[in-house]
Design a protein that fits this description.
Strand order of the largest sheet: 2-1-3-4-5
Structural class: alpha/beta
Oligomer: single chain
Shape: globular
CATH class: Alpha Beta
CATH architecture: 3-Layer(aba) Sandwich
Strand content: 15-25%
Bound molecules: flavin mononucleotide
Length: 130
Amino acid sequence: MNIAVRYYSRTGNTKAVAEAIAKAADVSAVSVDQPDAVISEPVDVLFIGGALYAYGIDGNLKDYLRLLDKEKVKKAVVFSTSWISKHSLDLIKKGLAENGIQTEAETFYVRSRPNESQLKAAEAFAKKFI
Ligand SMILES: Cc1cc2nc3c(=O)[nH]c(=O)nc-3n(C[C@H](O)[C@H](O)[C@H](O)COP(=O)(O)O)c2cc1C
């Protein structure tokens, strides 16, 4: 099974979740603004995460969702962090749907910085789809 983990994180919270998911999947978590974030080989599951900033998602993540090759992504699983609102989950799902990519209904969300038990929960969440 091919797994990829991609995220965008300004202050490290979503990155920490991405790294816990990546650990469970035994792959690297790659920020979407890095050249190697491009999905060039088909993946069965793409874990994709970002946070909410002023009620929107970062432009880097928006662009990445728009440019994803739907032929290379069988299914996406979304995760996010924010202070309060879970709207980022919907925005990421919307970006994927607009690109024709199927998204798992279940998502993973942490309020602000994840603690150790939340990182363990992220690992357990990821294992359900691997
Ligand atoms: C400039 C800025 C704007 C934010 N706007 C919102 C917001 O509208 N709603 C919310 O719930 N959280 C908001 N947050 C909180 C972030 O979503 C939260 O800290 C998140 O965990 C940051 O993820 P990151 O560390 O991966 O960048 C904002 C944070 C920043 C820095």
